[in-house]
Amino acid sequence: MSINLQTLGNKLKGYRVQLAQSAADVAQATGIGGERLSAFETGQLEPSGDEILILADHFRCDFHYFISNERVAPFEETEVLYRAGQGEFTPADRQAIQEFLYLCDTEAMLLEALNRSKSKFDLWKLTASELANPSEAAKRIRTALGYSDIELIADVYQACRDLGLHTFRRKLGNSRISGLFVTHPTAGKCALVNSSEDIYRQRFSAAHEMAHAIFDADEPVSVSLKNVQNERETRANKFASALLMPRSFLERIPDSKNWTDAKAIEWANRLKVSCSALGYALKTARLINSQLCDHIISLKVPKEMKSDPELPASLTQGEQNRKANLLHLGLSDFYVQLCFDGLREGVISLGRLSEALLCTPSELSELASLYKRTIHVS
């Protein structure tokens, strides 16, 4: 089947416009001349096989989409997502989101190929009563994940993945965006957490996006913006609070009405939440009054006290720094290890591995060393 050049040109232009890139931007990034790119977009010239691969890599999509004559983009929800963002996404953010969607699609493929795609709980099994009450829904989810009502969730990102939610932390330039939820056409439920934020805020954002995956699954996208209050966002916040700080746990905290500042900060750090989130949770549970809540909200957990489940203290400082940079690109331990497992099992090639890890083939050895893996090809 020959390629319909006009359809191909529309796809190339569609991706470029969606990412808010000029033809000069694409030319500079890909090394393909501007006049030649223009001829591709207008359907006057057919790209070579190598050029198709270069453009597919630049736009973070499957090259098969470009060489087919299908007219519908695999990420058609993306434009809906940008509209939902109310003009908040910069061109760099759009590129980051395109890569996030690519990671989600790759992760879903690998989980399916390696027979690891079964989640611990089907979110559709929540009852009408639980769906009407965010705290009850959080309690049911905690039970399904194996947590008692007085245990804390150590790694909320893994909790999201255990529920079948593809979860990535990715750095976005706009600090007003805490996270977003997308129903991907092939990968399913996907959540992005803005890793530019404080690490405890990121934990809350992950739980917040989990709520959107539960309560707003009928909506293709949801963008969580700071200081935007509506019914959906309030419900998601209530769920996140109940998931991370169950009332049964809060009620066991001794003498919360008479805390010193140091004690309030200590308990916020134990719960791995901000003082603001803890203050509101205690007030909602009627364990403290409004005045004390306002005071706790004004406090902050020092950065040096905080811990990140995806950057354990067992790593050297150098390893932590390198992995932190990779997390900003969306490359979690879970995803990276999954990619190397895919290579070991023959699911993906060495070249596909470097694409999946957003790196060049020459950078794979360093990544393998960092994650204690070997590059093995059958």
From TrEMBL:
The chain positions of domain HTH cro/C1-type read 12-66
* Molecular function in Gene Ontology: DNA binding
Check the record and name the InterPro entries matching this protein: Cro/C1-type_HTH, IrrE_HExxH, Lambda_DNA-bd_dom_sf, Rad_response_metalloprotease
PROSITE patterns assigned to the protein according to its UniProt record, in alphabetical order:
HTH_CROC1 (PS50943)
Q: Which domain of life is it from?
A: Bacteria
Family the entry assigns: Belongs to the short-chain fatty acyl-CoA assimilation regulator (ScfR) family.
Protein's UniProt name: Zn-dependent peptidase ImmA, M78 family
Report the source organism: Duganella sacchari
